[in-house]
Amino acid sequence: MKNVTDSFVSLGYWPSAGSFGFNTDILATNPINLSVVLGVLIFFGKGVCVGCLSDLLDNRKQRILNTIRNSEELRGRAVEQLEKARARLRKVEIEADQFRVNGYSEIEREKLNLINSTYKTLEQLENYKNETIHFEQQRSINQVRQRVFKQALQGALGTLNSCLNNELHLRTISANIGMFGTMKEITD
């Protein structure tokens, strides 16, 4: 019996027993705070409008498809330009046969320049198409993320506000005022 009494008496020697304070150790409190916030968002954010997200994704899909169609039209124009360039190349080759005696090297240079400029134009158009598609995808992903977060937050706040009645609200305020009063006494 004496051992049991001694164990309760030894509790009085612990410096943290019976006191309340704030833990200012950032490394210890941030994971706890983040897990609480994420838990609340996940719990209260279950009512996110799935239909709204579906409509948003459908709209984004249509925009991306339109962008792809526009890029394909640009590609078609580039192919037409390539065909024109090939026709011009054939014309240059015929002229090269006629003027071979006068300066074959000058015509060959023009041919290479024409081919290089055409390939550079095609590469630029292809790069533009790829950049446009990537940009639209990133923009749509960011918009979806923002809307999901906003809807989850609104759902959580709505649920929280519906659960918080006047009595609970007043008790929470009183408890917080009491804590701040205790903190002020400790700091004085």
Distance between the termini: 43 Å
Radius of gyration: 36 Å
Strand fraction: under 5%
Number of helices: 5
Shape: elongated
Please state the structural category.
Answer: mainly alpha
The averaged pLDDT comes out at 78
Largest sheet: none
| Estimated helix fraction | over 70%
Q: Which segments are poorly predicted (pLDDT under 50) over 5 or more consecutive residues?
A: 4-14
* Total beta strand runs: 0
Order of helices and strands: HHHHH
Pfam families: ATP-synt_B
InterPro entries: ATP_synth_b/b'su_bac/chlpt
Main location: membrane
Subcellular location: Membrane
List the helices and strands and how they pair.
Blueprint: H1 2-10, H2 26-44, H3 50-98, H4 100-163, H5 166-187
Helix pairs in contact: 2-4, 3-4
What can you tell me about this protein's structure?
- The two termini are 43 Å apart.
- The chain has a domain of 115 residues.
- 87% of the residues lie in helices and 0% in strands.
- The chain is mostly helical and 188 residues long.
- 1% of the residues are buried.
- It is elongated and about 105 Å long.
- It is built from five helices and no strands.
- InterPro entries: ATP_synth_b/b'su_bac/chlpt.
- It holds the Pfam family ATP-synt_B.
- It is found in: Membrane.
- Keywords: ATP synthesis, CF(0), Coiled coil, Hydrogen ion transport, Ion transport, Membrane, Plastid, Transmembrane, Transmembrane helix, Transport.
- It is a single-pass membrane protein.
